[in-house]
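user: can you give me the structure for this one chain? tokens are fine.
assistant: on it. calling the predictor now.
[tool input]
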Amino acid sequence: MASPGERIYLIENDADVIHLSDRAQGPDARLLIEVVADVPRVPAPGFVPSTAAVSARRSQHAAQAPASDLPLAGIVRQAAIRNSLEPELLHAMIAIESGGAARAVSPRGAQGLMQLMPATARDYGVSDPFDPRQNIGAGARHLRRLLDRFGQDKTLALAAYNAGPEAVARHHGQIPPNAETMAYVPRVLQRFAALQQESQPAIPGMRAFP
């Protein structure tokens, strides 16, 4: 049982993790309970954050957070909007390129979520290829450029993303006949189609059948 004079403080850190302590650790510590004559006293209402209060604080943090601190989906959505792309296509590429690993490096030296080659990263002004915002932003811009070059043909743009645009041009607008690219393009397109299907809103009143 708590002793007279004992105090319990609430400390909430920047990650919205709540700790209780008998010491005021830092300027954000708030007195939660003070024991007076063996009777716990709550100093003032509103000191215990409700779920709604924590959610509101998280929403405020999200609104103020720089793009690099946004969840991956938010960064992808921003890049897609800026480059007139479907976010599902970028998500599909990230899944196949890196498996969602921000610090992935391929044997050929491609880096980050969208596996930018160092020369490509430099072309788009990327200073840190492992920063999700920079990496996805550059990958989306590169894909947009390839789509424009190859007549909005996703198959050819993806082939060019993987093997290089000149390889596609050398093969007269066909997927270059190397095993990696021939496997990469259908994998991305299949993942893209599946993500698009998942994102379709359900039609009220319809029932799924096995």
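assistant: here you go. The chain has two domains: 7-64, 70-197. The chain is about 45% helix and 10% strand.
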